[in-house]
Structures are given as structure tokens and as C-alpha cells.
Automatic annotation (TrEMBL):
The chain crosses the membrane at residues 41-61, 67-86. This is Transmembrane protein. Keywords: Membrane, Transmembrane, Transmembrane helix.
Length: 105
């Protein structure tokens, strides 16, 4: 066997192995269904946390004179907490998109 034949067979073997690995990484229909449910849940969670954040922000900044200081402090804490939950939902959404083979956005 010549050097060229050896290189070609090595490259072909590598390509076949890469193709088999790609096929092995393809999720099953059950995994795709789970990832789709995860994506839907993450999208709904993002909407809920955004809505809750906007309500809390309005209460904390627009009606702060109507509440005692401790309530305003809790509302400000909730803004930070809800923003964190929104970001966590976004990360779960990215994971679901990755599992489905979608473009991450």
C-alpha cells in the first residue's frame, strides 16, 4: 500500500467514524418530544417571569409611597430574584434548542 492509499484510507475511516458518531448523537423521538416540551415550558416561564417582573417593578417604583419601607425592600429583592429566574429560563431554552438541533438565539 502506498503512502497516498494509507492517507486516503485513514481519512475515509475518520469520516466514517465521524458520520457514525453524528448518527449516534441524533436524539430519539422520545428525546425530541421531551426537548420540545422543555422548550415550550421555558418559553412560557420567560413570559411569566417577565410579566411578574414588570408588575413588581411598577409596584416598587411607581407606587412606592403607598407601601411601608419593608414592603418596598421586598419588592426590590423580588426584582432581582425574578430577573434571575428569567435568565435561568433562557438557559433552559438554549439547552432545549441545542437538543432539537435548532439555531441558538
Amino acid at each position: 500500500m502506498t503512502t497516498i492509499d494509507t492517507r486516503f484510507s485513514s481519512a475515509a475511516a475518520t469520516a466514517v467514524a465521524a458520520h457514525q458518531a453524528h448518527q449516534a448523537n441524533r436524539p430519539s423521538p422520545a428525546q425530541q418530544q421531551t426537548a420540545q416540551r422543555l422548550l415550550t415550558g421555558a418559553n412560557y416561564a420567560m413570559l411569566i417571569f417577565l410579566g411578574a417582573f414588570l408588575v413588581v417593578a411598577y409596584l416598587a417604583w411607581g407606587l412606592e409611597a403607598e407601601f411601608p419601607l419593608m414592603t418596598v425592600a421586598v419588592l426590590h429583592f423580588l426584582q432581582i430574584f425574578l430577573a434571575g429566574l428569567f435568565k435561568l429560563s433562557y438557559v433552559v431554552r438554549l439547552i432545549a434548542q441545542h437538543l432539537l438541533g435548532q439555531q441558538l438565539r
